């Protein structure tokens, strides 16, 4: 069985990016976006509320403030990020906000933090999910947890390579099962102990006043900041703004509706679980999470059956909780490649992260996110405690930078009336909250792994800076070549001359650089004077993530490509040379070039193909990483088909 057939069986048949129905069928409606992008935040209710509650120590009565603060913080961040969706409807989220509103270098920091955030989303979700599953298995399974985590990451990689929507639809039942079971438990748990609610508020205030008399109000305020220890609760809120380009039209409205779903579900679940801890007097039990011990008590009070039935119901609830963590891991495979794609457009990372696979997903980004998550899991030994520290700091660093960018934006764009003031106040409040949580996390958790986050982000930023420096130097060199050939004069001819298929034909595979194309044309004329009578120009444009996801981007790409080809044809006609052009689009440039060249060879049997390739003074793994080897790959494919192709060096 051929490799291509095996690939189709595993990943599915190729999709045509130029068909409008393809884009429509892949776009996420608000509900599916809530599942695919909101699972990250919702799953954090499995560990975030517990981290918050445990940080209170013996003063559990302060948990009421924690529940309120958690819900309010969720809505403040969600409403602030609605502004990001409005301002950047093509996606990019925190990275695009920081780049455009604060500066490119702050955008770089935000982008690196986001990439780390999504890698950790995968790692911590898989690790937590396997830990939850391991609690139902014999102790002998413990040494194999890392191998199980590796298996689940590999499974998610394959699912996402098949397509984003397909992966979400497969995981949908798990998400709905979690929502249904936790909704029932929270609502029942609150109503079952509703008689405790009237006394809860005055009792909490009385205990708070008593505590203040001993440690002072400053001490109480310091303890209330313990809710920052559950910082993982707010993760995932930025995912929608990062992936607006994946949403169904109208994108802004779909994004806002998705944010409402996410904010309501997360605030209700996280705040509700903390309230259950208070109403049911949750106490730590060795070997159990607070969620598990609390849910066990609630299920037992329902009177649905004996101990065996209650145990089975608890297993179902915790299984859905573990399953949702695997759904949440999928958010990393949605958001991470999107951030890499945006950074690739600005040349911070290799341009190949913009390329789409035959299934129209950013394959390179998906693979990198999966491999990076595996590396971190094996490095940390799957320790959820350490992963949570790294996770929370990277998340709130991005939040703080993004909200600071919004504060700057509304400060610079004052308008009459109160609209800008309300948005400025919302952004400023969100920034103060997120910056405060970030500062507390750095101080409290710096020695426990917070320093590692800073080192990783700094190292990523330094490498990205080096990549961009190389791309800028290369772009400047290509621009110099374009300027040299820009002075090439057109001839006096104006009449088009059609190529004769029986004559010798030179076929030039050109890109966006007019200088590179003219360099190849003049080189061939100089080396083979009067030999070729026909001059054909081929341009195979790669439909990448930005061209496919952006509004009107495909049409703009068509116009630019057609204009470039028209320039070459007009140049030849002006000098009395027969010329024509061919244009193709696809996700794989080599595949599309090969297809076009084979078609041309049937029509022009005496054709020889030419293309240019950048030649660097020092060719090494780094330059090969940053620049695709399309010319060499196309040459090999054409040679296998019995067609002649010559690569012309263009030194930069």
From TrEMBL:
Q: How does it sit in the membrane?
A: Multi-pass membrane protein
Instruction: Report the locations given in the UniProt record.
Output: Membrane
Q: What is this protein called?
A: Amino acid transporter
What organism is recorded for this protein? Duganella sacchari
Q: Does the keyword Transmembrane helix apply?
A: yes
Q: What is its main location?
A: membrane
Query: Keywords assigned by UniProt?
Result: Membrane, Transmembrane, Transmembrane helix
Query: What parts of the sequence cross the membrane?
Result: 61-81, 102-126, 146-163, 170-191, 211-227, 260-280, 312-340, 361-380, 386-411, 423-443, 449-467
Instruction: Read off the InterPro entries from this record.
Output: AA/rel_permease1, APC_K+_Transporter
Q: Which GO terms describe its cellular component?
A: membrane
Supply the Pfam families for this chain.
Answer: AA_permease_2
Any single GO molecular-function term of the entry would be: transmembrane transporter activity
- Domain of life the protein comes from: Bacteria
